[in-house]
Amino acid sequence: MNKREQADPRPRYRQVADELTAQLRAGVWPVGAMLPTETELCATFAVSRHTVREALRLLEESGLVQRRQGSGTTVLALATPDRFVQDITDMAELLQYPQETRLTVLRARTFEADAETAAQIGCGEGEAWVRVEAIRRLRVTTAPLCFTTLLIRAEYAEALDDIGVLPGPLYALIERRYGVQAALIEVDIAASNVPPHQAELLEVEPGTPALLIRRRYLDGQGRVYEISEGAHPAPRFTYRATLKRIPELP
Asked: Residue ranges of the HTH gntR-type domain (predicted)?
């Protein structure tokens, strides 16, 4: 280890990961190529196999490489893919995510809620709704952040015409057109896998781990008027919440 490495406060595996990332960015290994073996990397960086494996783990989590036992490490990208990190401390920040991304509608259809669907949505049987499937991106040219399914009451369907025309997420477009405000937002977060019919659109392999975020928007009368469900393939999205303890009153 040289003096520069001794002065570097970063863990050695992080240093190795950063050096490999820089080499990928410089085009040392093209997409689809195999990285040197763990043994070769150990010799190159004068580190242990454990250090190399931790460095490769960081590269894999960043979406740069894919490791397969017995097959080696394949280059997937030359630069870290775009990633969206959402910090949540209040309702305004909860709604920040759809404001900073771009939604592209793929298809939409109107349906009447049967008994099972009505129970899932929390509406009356026979009520008319619109189902929308869309892709959300951070920018037009970047890889998709998530596959989004939207359900809105059919009476607010004209707000869909404003997507991509007026700024803001769908709930804001509904508020602008109809004066309906979200008084309560319920959020469910679960681990999932990307199903085959979404994988191609998300540019990932079927079964890729994903973060499933479901939001239910309720108006001032407690009526559900919009539901959004987004499947976010790893590692393109991070959901971070900040919790603050409130001192107990004496």
From this structure: 10-78
Helix (H, G, I), strand (E, B) or coil at 211: strand
Q: Is residue 233 located within the same domain as residue 136?
A: yes
Tens-digit pLDDT profile for residues 30-43: 989 999 999 999 99
The answer to whether position 250 is within a domain reads no
What's the chain's length in residues? 250
Domain with 182 in it: 84-241
| Count of CB atoms situated within 10 Å of the CB of 226 | 23
Give the per-residue pLDDT at 8: 65
Q: Is the pTM of this model over 0.70?
A: no
Residue 67 sits in the same domain as residue 100: no
Q: Is residue 97 exposed (0-12), middle (13-18) or buried (19+ Cβ within 10 Å)?
A: buried
Q: What is the 3-state secondary structure (H, E, C) of 12-37?
A: HHHHHHHHHHHHHHCCCCCCCCECCC
